[in-house]
Prior knowledge:
single chain; mainly alpha; 7 helices
Amino acid sequence: MEPTDVAGQASMIPSIVGMIFWFGVAILVIAGMWKTFSKAGKPGWAAVIPVYNVIVLLQIAAKPWWWLFLLIIPVVNIAINIMVSISVAQAFGKGTGFGLGLSFLGPIFYPILGFGDSQYVGISEPGVQALPNTPA
């Protein structure tokens, strides 16, 4: 029989705990975005579909769909993300500070937005051609 490597097994425990923690954070963010999308009259399942979730977020923020392409340009994507987050916050009756929170601390602020008592009020920007609303 081979002796067991107790030190090797014990060193795996922190990584397993870390993996479980981040899995929980991911579930919380997905649930928060799901509820946020649902409040805005969009399908909640869109939160788990890559790229489509960004398109839906742009619809909620009343931004044109082609901003999706701006999000793949380095440095420009940071500014666009901040502007979209602020617009999403305003669409729910929140201020610029909350929008900055959505941008920089999304794992905390999206569950607050989704599970909180804020209601979707929408925003309208003249001259912006956003994609049509998708039925929930």
